[in-house]
Design goal:
2 domains, 3-stranded antiparallel sheet
Length: 511
């Protein structure tokens, strides 16, 4: 399936212009992108107006376009930049060397507008303090922004108004911008990808493919759930909308042609091989979103889940494409201080190394297929770049999420921190339901090829997903340690000496 993509119409006609990692895993995943930015980019695309680029289709506000033409045409989406709001939140807390005169003038103008339009019914807070407090409330939702310019900062996606597209300020454009015109806000580059490096777009396209094929009946449910999640803190939506609207109204931007504000972005393509996870990903996402929990925790756990699902997609495609035994995630659930669990650590490290070996073999196979005419120097460069944007990305994200240990040094292996355990419980077990411990292990293997017990290792060997080992009885200790970890998190309880159940204790959002 090396040459099959979704949507086919989004693929560059000359593959020589594409990187090998884009062809094999989607265009494009980069090390700079954090898990929160995967989530924000996915939601930004979902909430934006979209159209099929075929000179005939009309724009739609649907989160997911269901249309047979989707399979063969590039999709355009139009996120709302809300640069006035973004400047209000971030300008005062950013690097001095990237603050242009036009943006300083616009910032001061925005502060003046807010002072005239906000009244504080208190003798204990001065007007100027109220602006500072408001800015800090919003800034408190910042994601990893250290060292970035104000126009490249972002917030957690707590409401639709703060789903800012990535923007860059080109010096030539900013010098020509005028406070008297809409160029104050629209003369940014919205089509460069550094921190929002299309990882969320790859996830969106994966969901879109599922909804246009095997999971069509889930579209309305998923749209309802995502809208509800983004409405979890309505006060922030009201505040953000008010600031942006006052800025536009007083600057008379609202009288301009709406095309002046349009950010036009086009999605690329993902490998069709990701479709093997279509039904799993949609099922996991809709089951997770049905859990009623605190809105900020829900966003946080979903950011873990999206990255987890993308990594799973990439590893399995690499393993299948390279036709090697190495797609399982053998989880080291043991106590790191127990020396008797050394065999578990050794096998987990070996399986992790096989995961990475799959990427090397698959990338080499792709280079031989797409770039067989290149000389060795070019091939080596392609191989190095591809490993940077696959193996190294997975290492970086996995370590930052606590699912790959140790942070430094050899013998890397997968483990499961509490946040990811919660995502598994909430995405695999419907709200208020319970399953036996063994059934839960079956679910982890079926959905994510996660191996914890000797029984599932034997199954993986029989399915050519793991290397043969004559004796893995030591994984029984791993299974016991995993049960204890679930118990410590409050998800597992013993019914008898022989039976334990794993329970999703949360209520449904529908109640």
């Amino acid at each position: 399936m090396l040459n099959e993509f979704f949507p086919m119409g989004a693929l560059d006609t000359n593959v020589k212009d594409c990187s090998i990692q884009s062809l094999l895993f989607g265009h494009r995943i980069k090390p700079q992108q954090t898990r929160y930015e995967y989530l924000a980019e996915f939601l930004q695309i979902a909430m934006a107006k979209k159209s099929i680029d075929d000179n005939d289709s009309q724009p739609t506000n649907d989160m997911f376009i269901i249309d047979e033409k989707v399979n063969n045409h590039m999709i355009e989406y139009n996120p709302i930049s809300n640069m006035g709001l973004k400047r209000f939140i971030f300008f005062g807390n950013s690097r001095l060397d990237t603050k242009s005169s036009i943006d300083r003038e616009a910032y001061e103008k925005c502060i003046e507008i807010m002072k005239r339009n906000i009244e504080i019914d208190s003798t204990q807070i001065e007007d100027k303090e109220s602006i500072y407090i408001l800015q800090n409330i919003l800034y408190g939702f910042s994601i990893e922004n250290a060292g970035r310019s104000w126009f490249n900062k972002n917030l957690l996606p707590v409401c639709p108004e703060v789903l800012f597209p990535e923007s860059l300020a080109r010096k030539g454009h900013r010098k020509k911008a005028s406070i008297e015109s809409v160029s104050t806000d629209n003369s940014f580059d919205f089509n460069s990808y550094t921190y929002m490096a299309r990882g969320g777009e790859i996830y969106y396209l994966h969901i879109l493919h599922a909804l246009n094929n095997s999971e069509k009946d889930k579209k309305l449910l998923l749209e309802k759930q995502l809208n509800r999640m983004l409405s979890g803190i309505p006060q922030l939506s009201i505040i953000s909308s008010y600031i942006q609207k006052k800025w536009e109204d007083e600057m008379e931007f609202s009288d301009k042609d709406t095309d002046d504000f349009a950010v036009k972005k086009k999605m690329r393509a993902i490998p069709l091989g990701y479709q093997y996870r279509d039904r799993y990903t949609v099922s996991e996402l809709t089951t997770f979103l049905d859990n009623r929990i605190q809105p900020m925790e829900k966003l946080d756990l979903l950011s873990y889940g999206i990255v987890l699902q993308i990594i799973r997609m990439m590893i399995t495609v690499a393993a299948n494409g390279s036709e090697t035994d190495g797609s399982i995630w053998l989880i080291d659930a043991s106590d790191p201080d127990k020396k008797e669990h050394l065999e578990i650590k050794k096998l987990a490290s070996h399986c992790f190394a096989l995961n990475e070996e799959c990427f090397i073999k698959y990338i080499d196979k792709g280079i031989a297929y797409f770039y067989h005419d290149d000389d060795e120097e070019k091939k080596n460069k392609r191989r190095g770049d591809a490993l940077d944007d696959t193996v190294k990305v997975i290492r970086k994200l996995g370590k930052s999420m606590g699912m790959i240990v140790p942070m430094t040094g050899p013998n890397m292996r997968f483990t499961l921190p509490e946040e990811i355990l919660k995502f598994f419980i909430m995405s695999l077990i419907p709200v208020g339901k319970k399953v036996t411990f063994d059934n839960f292990l079956d679910m982890l293997y079926e959905h994510f090829e996660i191996v914890i017990s000797p029984e599932h290792y034997a199954r993986a060997v029989s399915e050519h997903k793991a290397p043969y080992r004559s004796n893995v009885t030591f994984l029984q200790m791993n299974k016991s340690d995993f049960a204890q970890k679930l118990k410590n998190c409050g998800f597992l309880r013993d019914l008898s000496d022989a039976t334990s159940i794993v329970e999703n204790p949360y209520e449904s959002e529908e109640k």
